Every structure is written in structure tokens, then in C-alpha cells.
């Protein structure tokens, strides 16, 4: 009987250990199953969100940021109004000196001229540029208005030829402005002066442009070789 009890003891301990291992495996299996379920759930949510983002307009993020910024500005204005403060003044006080200098530099670099599109647009830009430089003579305008009355504002039926004689100051201003335009055009002309004494090492205008570019980039490296070829002493 004692030997049977000794045999039953280890078998019971082994069964308990096996049961414990089984419970541990089941527990790990349930944890893995829950992790898999959570991963599938998160993946499905991300797919739905990505589908929503793809259906949104291309500039939605910028619009959203703009709307959030406008909401913050409105809240800030309400707070300033409640305290009896000027919002523009408060906003300027919050801007650092570095940001102000950076904005000023950016404003100076900004070029509203987008380049040539057609002759009508170029003519309009020139007209606007010239009219911005005009300083109206209000005293002369009042005198003309008293002199001509309603005739100062012509209509489609008005006869303008020969009815207006410009003043000497006006003619002088026009001449000075035309001379300034001519000087500016000559300054920005891209025609290069022709040097009669320069060596002719090209066969046409296109080849001359190519040689100039090659000389500009590689001239200092090939100067000695070129001199040797001209003297006939090249090895």
C-alpha cells in the first residue's frame, strides 16, 4: 500500500503540472486572440478613415487649418472686446521682432509681375505702373472743373480733338517720363555689344553662344592647351 501511495503521488503532481501548463497555454491563446481582434478592429477603422480622407478635396487640410485659425482669431477678438482692448494692437504686441523683420523681407521680395502672358496683360501692367507714379495736381483740377463744368467729363458724344491745350509743366512731365522709360529700356536690353577685336572662333551665332558658355565654365582649365595649339607647340 505504501508503494502504491508513492506511485500515486508523482502521478497526481504530474497531472497538476500538466493542467497548469494547459491553463497557461489557453490563457496565452486568449491573449493572442484578443490582440488579433484589436488589430483587425484598428485596421478596419484606419481603412475607413483613409477612405474618408481620399474622398475629401485635395486642399482639405489647408482649409481645416484655416478654419481653426479663424475660430481662434474670433475667440481672441471676443476676449479683447470683453476686456475693452483693441485686438489689432494686442496682435501686434504679440509679434516678435524677428517675425516682423522676416515678414518685411518677404514683402519686399514679393514680385507681383508673373511674367509675360499676352500683350494686353503687359500693356495693362505698364499702364498701372505708370499711373501709380502720377501725382495729381488738385488745384489745377479744381480750376479746370470751374472753367469747363460738365464738359470736363466727356461722353461718347463729346468732341475732344482740339479742345484741350496742355500746360508747359504737363508737357515737361510727359517728356521727363518718356526719357525715363527710354533709359530703363536701354538699361534692361539684353543685346550685348560686339567686339571687333575679339578672336572669331565660331561659325554662326549659335556656335558663338556655345563657345561663350564653354569659356565661362572651362576657360581657366583649357587656357594653356589653347595657347599651345595656337603656337603649334602642343604635344
Automatic annotation (TrEMBL):
Organism per entry: Onychorhynchus coronatus
GO biological process assignments = mRNA splicing, via spliceosome
UniProt-recorded name of the protein: Pre-mRNA-splicing factor SYF2
Q: Where is the signal peptide?
A: none
Q: Where is this region: Disordered?
A: 1-20
Q: Record's Pfam families?
A: SYF2
Cellular component, GO annotation: catalytic step 2 spliceosome; post-mRNA release spliceosomal complex; Prp19 complex
Chain's role? Involved in pre-mRNA splicing as component of the spliceosome.
- Compositional bias ranges of the Low complexity kind: 9-18
Q: What family does this chain come from, according to its entry?
A: Belongs to the SYF2 family.
Query: What's the chief localization of this chain?
Result: nucleus
Subunit text = May be part of a spliceosome complex.
Q: Which InterPro entries match?
A: mRNA_splic_SYF2 (IPR013260)
Task: Please provide the record's keywords in A-Z order.
Answer: mRNA processing, mRNA splicing, Nucleus, Spliceosome
Cellular localization per UniProt: Nucleus
Amino acid at each position: 500500500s505504501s508503494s502504491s501511495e508513492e506511485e500515486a503521488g508523482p502521478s497526481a503532481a504530474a497531472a497538476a503540472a500538466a493542467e497548469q501548463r494547459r491553463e497557461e497555454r489557453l490563457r496565452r491563446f486568449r491573449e493572442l486572440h484578443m490582440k488579433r481582434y484589436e488589430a483587425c478592429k484598428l485596421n478596419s477603422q484606419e481603412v475607413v478613415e483613409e477612405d474618408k480622407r481620399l474622398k475629401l478635396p485635395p486642399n482639405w487640410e489647408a482649409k481645416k487649418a484655416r478654419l481653426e485659425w479663424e475660430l481662434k482669431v474670433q475667440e481672441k477678438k471676443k476676449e479683447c472686446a470683453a476686456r475693452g482692448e483693441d485686438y489689432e494692437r494686442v496682435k501686434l504686441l504679440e509679434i516678435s521682432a524677428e517675425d516682423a523683420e522676416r515678414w518685411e523681407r518677404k514683402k519686399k521680395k514679393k514680385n507681383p509681375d508673373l511674367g509675360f502672358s499676352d500683350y494686353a496683360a503687359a500693356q495693362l501692367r505698364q499702364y498701372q505702373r505708370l499711373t501709380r507714379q502720377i501725382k495729381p495736381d488738385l488745384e489745377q483740377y479744381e480750376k479746370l472743373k470751374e472753367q469747363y463744368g460738365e464738359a470736363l467729363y466727356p461722353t461718347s458724344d463729346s468732341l475732344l480733338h482740339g479742345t484741350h491745350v496742355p500746360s508747359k509743366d504737363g508737357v515737361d512731365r510727359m517728356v521727363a517720363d518718356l526719357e525715363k522709360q527710354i533709359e530703363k529700356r536701354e538699361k534692361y536690353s539684353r543685346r550685348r555689344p560686339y567686339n571687333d577685336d575679339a578672336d572669331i572662333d565660331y561659325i554662326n551665332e549659335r556656335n558663338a553662344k556655345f563657345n561663350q558658355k564653354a569659356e565661362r565654365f572651362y576657360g581657366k582649365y583649357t587656357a594653356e592647351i589653347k595657347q599651345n595649339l595656337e603656337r603649334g607647340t602642343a604635344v
